[in-house]
Design a protein that fits this description.
Helices cover 14% and strands 32% of the residues. The chain contains 4 helices and 12 strands; from the N terminus they run αβααβαββββββββββ. The two termini are 26 Å apart. This is Lipoprotein.
Length: 236
């Protein structure tokens, strides 16, 4: 049963006071906060954050012990095909892009590959029903940083959870956060349809937000947590 369907059952049972915000399993909180600060309006429009910047978390959730290993061995870098902003290392998975001079660092929920020309950092961010279709997606970030400086790009991907132990994971781009120094621009893409084959992951952007970190005040929402029948509201 998906997280969203579980929430819907609680709503029908009268166990929740208001169900405007859909539940989110936050895997790496610092990465989720970074995404939320980059595109808060998009997350609010998708009912993943409320107007105070808080999210609703399930009280319990059984997931993978190591998302990082799964992503390294099974996530395809095909979402970057056609990109001209940075190099694209070919391979069916990120593990297959490793060259003799590449260096890899692993952690529980992500990994980093240092190639000769750039560094690629992948993190499992969260699990949520992004487009409200009753199916949960893995939300994964992939940061590409040139080794010699220049523009960096963070791709936010929607990855359908694997259905078996051998399925190659394909990501559909939800947004791209492109930064040059302190100036960042977020391109939000129309991700209404999330296919396992990710047949057209590079649709034209539908919305653009300009962000200049450090020049705008950031107000943290008040800390509060209340139990709501199997769900818990949390602030960032």
């Amino acid at each position: 049963m998906s997280i969203a369907r579980f929430c819907a059952l609680l709503c029908l049972g009268g166990l929740l006071f208001g169900c405007s915000t859909r539940p989110v399993v936050v895997v790496e909180k610092d990465q989720f906060i970074r995404m939320a600060k980059a595109m808060p309006k998009e997350l609010q429009a998708r009912d993943l954050l409320d107007d105070k910047g808080s999210y609703v978390a399930p009280m319990s959730f059984a997931g993978y012990k190591s998302y990082g290993e799964e992503l390294f061995k099974r996530l395809s870098p095909s979402f970057m095909v056609g990109e001209t902003t940075h190099d694209v290392y070919l391979g069916n998975t990120f593990a297959a892009t490793i060259l003799p001079d590449s260096r890899v660092k692993h952690w529980d929920n992500g990994f980093r590959i240092s190639h000769a020309t750039q560094t690629v950092t992948v993190n499992m961010v969260a699990i949520a029903d992004w487009n409200n279709d009753g199916q949960d997606e893995w939300i994964v970030s992939c940061m590409v940083e040139p080794r010699m400086g220049g523009r960096s790009r963070t791709y936010y991907l929607l990855v359908p959870p694997p259905q078996n132990s051998t399925e190659i994971l394909k990501g559909t781009i939800a947004a791209i956060n492109e930064c040059f120094g302190l100036s960042c621009t977020v391109f939000v893409r129309d991700s209404k349809i999330i296919e396992r084959t990710a047949s057209n992951p590079l649709l034209p952007p539908t919305e653009v937000h300009d962000v200049v970190p450090g020049l705008q005040p950031v107000t943290e929402p008040p800390n509060k947590a209340s139990s709501k029948g199997g769900l818990e509201e949390r602030s960032l």
